[in-house]
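# nightly structure sweep
# worker-07 picked up a monomer target from the shared queue
# config: single-sequence mode, recycle default, output format = structure tokens
# input follows
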Amino acid sequence: MKFTVMRSDIVTAVQNVSRAVSTKATLPALEGILIKAYNNTLTMSGYDMELAITTSIDATVTNEGEIVVGAKLFSEIVRKLPEEIVTVETDERMIIYINSGNAAYQIVGISSMEYPEMPKFDSLDEIRISAGLLKNMIKQTIYAVSDNINKPIYTGSLFEVKDKVMRIVSIDGYRMAIRQENIESESDNRFIVPGKMQSEILKLITDDEKEIEICIGQRHVSFTVDNYSIVSRLIEGNFLDYRTTIPKNEDTVIRINTRELINSVDRIALITSDRVQSPVRFSITQDEIKLSCRTAVGRANDVIPVSTIGKDTEIGFNNKYVLEALRNTECDEVKLILNGSLSPMVIRPVQGEEFIFLVVPMRLNDEI
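# output follows
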């Protein structure tokens, strides 16, 4: 195999596909990138047996062929080459020769025959959505994806498409995030996409104007982002009926400036830590919210003037969960909806229904 390629092209491609390469694999080939050079096209793939990322770039291919090259070393080499023109050649002993300007390397490769077969599946449904819209929807919900491997179903997000509305739902047991948008699709489908795959999609979206194609199979899903294809297994199982968890009543409703509330919770949280967890207490009356917290470190108090509709109430929250929800609203103002001290707080936009965020409260103990 022999090909010549632009350094900037191969550097970007290698860095992106390397994110799907296994760092500690029992099969050495899985720690490498599969490179195929055919028809003046270089196709590179990373695969960790769960997630695969593949891309193609233009190259001048003199001798066609394929090989597996160690991802970490190859990435460092091409990134530090001195010239823009890079020539890569292999011989029958699986030695890879890399040349650029006066720099030359010889490294050992692995036969492509040792690389596991990349996931392939028949597409049963397809959805098209703008890259910018999908990026925004994932960004606003991925924070609530669970990292608890004992409940794998919630280590991904539910993607639901029905009646030309697409929803993404994430739940981790402490909070829930729902984001929805109208899209031009006749699809009627629901599938669970791993959180890891969503993270990679966010990193690969560089042009919000482009269109992303989602192909759903029986057990796999693929996202085509620009000239990258990301394939992963779907998470199988029964996702929670999220609609039943959204409180129907609105005992207490507060319209509040999002940044003002974030800043206040941030100030109160200064006396908490991962080791010293104590709820931030919200004491809500008709004209203000008193925020307070008491830990072994000390006490903190703050007050935000508001206009409240409904009942006075007291409720406590983990500051981290409240802050993450508020920061992902991306709104100047939000509505806080409460139903007593034990029911989840609902965060909605002041107008519209683009998102619904739920935060489960912490039980309050003694008064401060």
